[in-house]
Design goal:
binds flavin-adenine dinucleotide; disordered N terminus; binds uridine-5'-diphosphate; disordered C terminus; alpha+beta
Length: 404
């Protein structure tokens, strides 16, 4: 039998989404050899964008707008392409009108009589002083009756229907941290996000990923489920292609898959995404319109308005129909479902996976956290640093293995 020497990579990363790609890039820049395995046929994870058959740039896995208050994250992403300032606005169909979301003073003026609006605004300014944003729960729980009624209105007409559709359970069963992602604005500011930096990549997200992964020490294999090459052995070792692996394994997929569902499946929410190209210059007033109280979908995105792409006479829209996530071909896990039971199950997986001290979990799926893109970048930079500080991963320790 012929024996052949072959070097192992220093690091294997499973998943070419933002988490895996930032880590691959950071470690490659620090001199490590990285093997990046991605089970889909493309890079970019859920941020992947592409031109559709009509030539319009769309986000295949739902609308993505980059926003952050973290200057370090902003500086980091700017290294990999040109980003254009983009002020994201959302409207919601409420009471037959199209009002700003987050609900603000303009929405009040559109929906309530003028004298009521001025009374509400005075009371809000008095009660919440300099604050520009409050949660709907703060309004609901307010001791001032008319403000609590306002909170109830916003809760019923902005949150209850949308949330029940999105999460498949009544709004009071959804973790408050989820609802509180969208505030009530005490003023006329009408942006969806309040962050200092709000951007879209000029050439699209996929182009940013291509730049990040263009590095001589990164080898990227698409269409490759990491489970076909990596095995976690019960004795705490990790094997790559049938040989003991001495490097670091970064995993950004679902943790229950790694342990073959030994503690049951971790629930996620999915979306049925319906794209449609219309023979129209413009389909709606802003990039995203929410439908909290009518329709089976939650929102419609018009991509031209997000990306700034010029294309006359046609426009592509996306309707999002929330669905349960079943582990079957063609379905994607989009959102972890935050509740104590799921958190406890996740913790069991995390504790069991600590057996493999070469293993790092990072990202929305692997950490079962409702991360935005900027949170993923910050976390991936932190994990990269932790990996580089490992003693066993010095530059000289690349392991030679024998393959037969
Ligand atoms: P993912 O993007 O899910 O990447 C994980 C990758 O790992 C995938 O490519 C997957 O195929 C791969 N993988 C999994 N298992 C394996 C395996 N066994 N082997 C190989 N590969 C594997 N954030 C914002 O900041 N702004 C927004 O506007 C925004 N909009 C969003 C809209 C929607 C509909 C959704 C679902 C999310 C949105 N997000 C938004 C969140 C954003 O998508 C995430 O924060 C970010 O993409 C997470 O990156 P990730 O690498 O953790 O996960
Ligand atoms: N939400 C709502 N009505 C809206 C917008 C949001 O009830 O018009 C709630 C809903 O529960 C949603 C959560 O706020 O899941 C977070 O909204 P966000 O826009 O952050 O969701 P994402 O873009 O991550 O899907």
């Amino acid at each position: 039998m012929k024996r052949q020497r072959k070097e192992q990579p220093d690091v294997v990363v499973a998943g070419a989404g933002f988490a895996g790609t930032v880590i691959a890039r950071e470690l490659a820049e620090a001199g490590k050899h990285v093997l990046l395995l991605e089970k889909r046929e493309h890079i970019g994870g859920n941020m992947y964008d592409e031109k559709n058959a009509d030539g319009i740039l769309i986000h295949r896995y739902g609308p993505h707008i980059f926003h952050t208050n973290d200057a370090a994250v902003y500086e980091y992403v700017r290294r990999f392409g040109t980003w254009t300032p983009y002020y994201h606005q959302v409207r919601g169909k409420i009471g037959g009108k199209e009002v700003p979301i987050p609900f603000n003073f303009q929405a009040m003026e559109q929906l309530f009589p003028a004298e009521k609006v001025s009374r509400l605004q005075q009371k809000l300014r008095f009660l919440f002083r300099e604050r520009k944003r409050v949660s709907v729960m703060e309004l609901l729980e307010c001791s001032e009756k008319e403000i609590a009624e306002l909170g109830q209105f916003v809760y019923d007409f902005v949150f209850a229907g949308y949330t029940a559709k999105q999460w498949g359970v009544p709004v009071d069963q959804v973790d408050r941290s989820v609802i509180n992602r969208v505030p009530v604005v005490l003023g006329y500011e009408n942006g969806y996000f309040a962050d200092v930096y709000q951007l879209m990549p000029q050439e699209g997200y996929t182009s940013i990923f291509e730049t990040m992964l263009r590095h001589p020490r990164i080898q990227c294999c698409l269409g490759t489920d990491a489970q076909t090459r990596i095995t976690l052995q019960e004795n705490g070792t990790i094997w790559l292609d049938g040989t003991v692996f001495h490097g670091v394994f970064v995993y950004t997929g679902m943790p229950d898959e790694l342990l073959h569902y030994r503690y049951g499946t971790l629930p996620y929410r999915s979306l049925d995404l319906q794209f449609e190209t219309l023979q129209l210059e413009s389909a709606q007033s802003v990039g995203v319109v929410n439908y909290p109280n009518s329709e089976a979908f939650t929102r419609i995105t018009e991509f031209k308005k997000l990306t700034g792409q010029k294309k006359s006479g046609i426009t592509t829209i996306l309707r999002e129909y929330p669905t349960a996530f079943a582990r079957q071909e063609g379905q994607e896990a989009y959102y972890p479902i935050e509740n104590p039971e799921n958190r406890a199950r996740y913790e069991r997986y995390r504790t069991a996976l600590a057996t493999w001290n070469q293993l790092y979990l990072c990202g929305r799926l692997a950490e079962y956290r409702y991360y935005n893109m900027d949170g993923v970048v910050a976390r991936a930079l932190q994990v990269s640093q932790e990996i580089l500080e490992r003693k066993s991963l010095s530059n000289d320790s690349r392991t030679a293995c024998l393959l037969t």
